[in-house]
Amino acid sequence: MDLAARVMSVVGRTSLSESSTSPVNNCQKIGKVMDVSDGAFIGGFIPYDECRIRSEQLVKGALETSFLDMDEQISQDKQVWRLPGGCAVISVLVFLGKLYIANAGDCRAILVSSDGTKALSRDLTPSSERKRLQELAYRNPELIGNSFSRLEYSKKLTRSDLKSRVLYRDWFMDGWAVKTVNETDLRPSLISESSRKRRLLNTIGVSRGFGDHHLLTVDERLSIKPFLSAVPEISVTNLRDMNTLSDKDVVIVASDGLWDVLSNEDAGLIVRSTLGSTDSSDSSRYTQAAQDLIAAARGQQASGNLKRWVMNSGGHASYDDITVFVIPLKYCAAPPTNFEEEDDDEMLSLE
Known about the structure:
By secondary structure, this protein is α+β, with helices and mostly antiparallel strands. The chain folds into three domains: about 5-50, no CATH class; about 55-120 and about 230-335, 4-Layer Sandwich (Phosphatase 2c, domain 1); about 130-205, no CATH class. About 20% of the residues lie in helices and about 25% in strands. The strands form eight sheets. A four-stranded antiparallel β-sheet has the order 9-8-17-20. Strands 6-7-16 form a three-stranded antiparallel β-sheet, with helices on one face. A three-stranded antiparallel β-sheet has the order 10-11-12, with no helix packed on it. A hairpin with a 2-residue loop joins strand 18 (about 300) and strand 19 (about 305-310). The longest helix has 23 residues, at about 55-75. The relative contact order is 0.13.
């Protein structure tokens, strides 16, 4: 497909007749423009190769739009069907030798290999997304009305703190600053503390996911959905960078019920132990590894207290729902025999 572009520059109030244009044919080069503060114009071209759209970017775009489309479909279905609640979402895709993890919520994926354990996603919660949520409240104050304060404080404020000084941070801040407490600071914080996890608008412990279109705060009846994004964070791991893939190299994908009580390293050790003690020809060994993870997180009933469950370490066991996948990479990531190293970096034609 032949395309032509034309570049025009105007410096200050110079008339168009004094400006110059130059054609660029066949998209061999892409123009660049830098508007320097002293009024000078710098123009030029950068190689076309630097502007290619690679297959990785198309895969990421497909995942991003599919998440948004699914959330919109749920919204439409709620007009017809009773679909209460929402959910955190994580998706795993192996394509052209690369592992894509798309995450919207507090589910988590980790890679367990001979090199150890590596996180492939991060938990998207009110705590980890504080700045994004605070900025939304700053730019759209009607979302919190007069019921909440978007600021985060170093401690829970009471009326006795009025006119005293307190540490706080806002949407643009990584550090902390000092302010004098006034009446508006006594409102509940946009992101509140609780016994187990921080919550958004005193209601929900995640900041991304599907659904919850009609979720409201209990007292103020404020909509929470404007803060809940369905856009996933996507990580890409090139499996060809791994020297070899053995039957013990796996991806663990699980809901927060598991990660609330098990660290990434603990989960990796449990899976490696299960796989190391089972026959490599047993196709059910990965199911057994997933079951062992759930059993470890569920724990056992405490002696003398049938309502309390504890882990072997003595810590509290998980009371939340748990979903676990243990995915062997060796059997889903092997490229075709004619696969070439740079095939996925070639320009894709959409004609």
